[in-house]
Amino acid sequence: MNSKPRLSTYWVTCADGLETLLQEEIEGLGVENVERFPGRLVFKGTLEQAYRVCMWSRLASRVLTPIHVHELDFTHDARDVAEELYEGAINFDWSLIFAPQSTFAVRLHVEREIKVNTQFATLRVKDGVVDSFMEAVGKRPSIDIKQPEITLYVLAGKTEHTYCLDLSGDSLHKRGYRRFMTDAPIKENLAAAILQKAKLKQRHPDIILDPMCGSGTFIIESLMVLTDRAPGLVRRFGFLGWNGHDHDLWMNIKAEAAERHKDAMAQPLPQFYAYDADWEAVKATKQNIIAAGFESVLDQIKIEERTLADWPDFQAEGKSAFVVTNPPYGERLGDKASNRALYLGLSALLQKNFPNQYAAVIAAAVEQADVLAFNNPQILRLMNGKLPIYVRFGDIKPATVVKPFLADWQPQQFEKIEGAEDFTNRLQKNMQTLKKWAVKENIHCLRLYDADLPDFNVAVDLYGERLHVQEYAPPKTIDPEKAKKRFNLALAAIRAVTGLGRDAIFIKTRARQEGKTQYSKQSTASKRFIVQEGKAKILVNLTDYLDTGLFLDHRQMRLRIAAEAKGKHFLNLYSYTSTASLHAALGGAASTTSVDLSNTYLNWSKENFVLNGLTVDHADEQHQFFASDCFEWLKEGHEQYDLIFIDPPTFSNSKKFYGTFDVQRDHISLIKRAMNRLSTQGTLYFSNNYRGFEMDEEIEALYDVQEISHETIGLDFKRNQKIHRAWKINHIQN
């Protein structure tokens, strides 16, 4: 008659937040009656079950078995925790656990509120173990903190100290394949937990994509799950030097795991895509996949250097896809606003490429995860080391086609607004005139009215489905009450004609500005919205500054640059929020360089780039941003550019700039310096909004100069032809 196998107590530790998922996993391995504690599961089971957890758990950190408990005597008031730990260690015969010729190490974990020098206390535990050996067998084991044959895990508690044998040895998250690292990688067991939560194996996807793959952790963990590869198949364990180790039992479990993996490798796999904007990450992913033993399936994995803006056509129609990624959040990217822009851009790309498919995306904050457009979203909070992370799971919402506002706008029926009849008629007429053009050209942001009538001195700009209304400050000769009444009439008429409510209309008063006043903050409301222009998504701020971040009168110039930029090196001086650079980048520019004195606007620029899936945080940057005076920057460098855009202010006396800048006075030296940086066959576009500006004859004598103002003014500014002037400047060809 066979005796029942002996049951022992085992602890399975894990990262905070993984307890429930880990319990599901080890119960799936046949373990019963599991108790759950913060960061730890406890069960009574057989050695075989403990071995199976070591072999198969993708989520656990360690598997421990308690072997000795030292209960504390509180007859004295003062506690010396280090000496208590020594007493507990020396009072147990450790030669029963491992041989004196083995090397060992101690890991000490101290419960909260216990004050002790952990380094000294760990040393005292080691002293106790060594002294115990000397008393028992007259020999002492050696200490090896890097690769010990035996690891002892000690929990120092308030009423007792527990001494455990660490069956896992090194942490179980270390699978042995991560030979090459990138910044802030996710731990392997957390990646596996996310895949388990997402039910990857049950989904049987045709496509698996990680668009920001880093060192390839999600790709490799997905391969391990789908090929039934046990994470412990090729690693060394801490129980191998234990006196209680059952070699035959372990070899049987190992052989079974190897056979399961072999059978699964014969089955078809999904098509994997691993992308990253960093070439070093691409190399690391490939090398780690090979180190993990999956070289034979490399033809199933497309590993490429790509930004989010550079996704190919996945041809996912009729196929199921699973997207999982760990974006470069937090310190890897920069401020919170840039992080939000990254997640907005990622969300838009997922909606476009993988509608109704499943995704799991890591974020550093709930606010980032909240912008992801998922149906039935779930959130999981985990700890990646000491860093909290949030994982958003859900089905990707299909993208909605955003049409220009004027496409669906029709003349409204409303009661006559007495005193504003002329304004109402003019605004409605303008919108009818612009409607066909805006729909044909897919224009979402345009000027609807610009002080057309003397009595209604306002500018009405459309940004997507919102209005930006600027009241030009009336002369001092006008009664303020009368001006206020007229402006209120204009607002009533604007709401009636457009059909837009108060919450979609943003109001500012604009006086004549000089220097940096036009860029100074007017509000702290921070109403920022995304609008579309050509291929670009652009962040506009309709409250905080007089200018919104997008100069509407330069739309045609930006679209021109987008059409000409492919393969060219583009320079944008006085770049503001770098929307021209963004268009150049999306048009296929080989590189873009944006120069502006304001860090505020350069950060805004980076957000625009990130929003469109373009990378801005690498040292060998394709897209560079410099906070500098343009004159100084031009003087100090020597790089050549194929396409240059200069849109300087009329006047500037910024604190960062020594002296003043006057566009009429200083444009000669500015253009000459810029032309020194223009390639022989290159083109420089120069534009400014100073109505009295005249291009100096010296420039016209030195270069091939063509005024193209009429080509750069859209239909919405045709009434106001003097809004800006623009020139195309080339080197004279011999």
UniProtKB/TrEMBL annotation:
InterPro entries: 23SrRNA_methyltr_KL, DNA_methylase_N6_adenine_CS, RlmKL-like_Mtase, RlmKL-like_Mtase_CS, RlmL_1st, SAM-dep_methyl-trfase, SAM-dependent_MTases_sf, THUMP_dom
Primary location recorded for the protein, binned into one broad class: cytoplasm
Keywords of the record: Cytoplasm, Methyltransferase, RNA-binding, rRNA processing, S-adenosyl-L-methionine, Transferase
Gene3D superfamilies: 3.30.2130.30, RNA methyltransferase domain (HRMD) like, Vaccinia Virus protein VP39
CDD domains with a match to the protein in the record: AdoMet_MTases (cd02440), THUMP_AdoMetMT (cd11715)
Coiled-coil region list: none
GO CC annotations, alphabetized: cytoplasm
Record's keyword annotation contains RNA-binding: yes
Domain (THUMP) ranges: 49-167
EC number: 2.1.1.173, 2.1.1.264
Subcellular location: Cytoplasm
Record GO terms (molecular function): 23S rRNA (guanine(2445)-N(2))-methyltransferase activity; RNA binding; rRNA (guanine-N7-)-methyltransferase activity
NCBIfam families for this protein: PRK11783.1 (NF008748)
Main function: Specifically methylates the guanine in position 2445 (m2G2445) and the guanine in position 2069 (m7G2069) of 23S rRNA.
Protein name per UniProt: Ribosomal RNA large subunit methyltransferase K/L
Source species of the chain: Acinetobacter defluvii
